[in-house]
Request: fold
Amino acid sequence: MKVEHQVWLKFKPGTSPEVIQGHIAGLASLKKIIPEVLALKIGTNFTERAQGYTHGLAVTVGSRAGLKTYLEHPEHVRVATAVRKDADVMALDFEFSE
Reply:
C-alpha cells in the first residue's frame, strides 16, 4: 500500500518571508533528490481552520519501508532540522490504496 506523509507547518513569529521561502524550496527539492518520493505537494494554507498552521506538505511514497527511507535520508534530515528551528511541525502518516 502507498503511504501519505502529511506535515503542517506553523512558522514562528518573526520568521521572514525569505526564510520561509527558503524552507519551502528545500522541502520541494526533496522530490528530485529522494527516489522513494512518488509525489510531493506543498502550499500555503488559505483557511482559518488549521489552528494557525500556515503551510502544508504532502509526500506520497510507495510503502512504509519507503517512508522510513525518506525520513532517514540525509537530505530530508538536513531540511527538516532546519525547518524545525523556525516552525512548529505536526505530522500524520497513513496508508491508502488507489
About this structure: Strands lie at 2-11, 37-44, 55-61, 87-96. DSSP finds three helices and four strands in the chain. The mean pLDDT is 97.
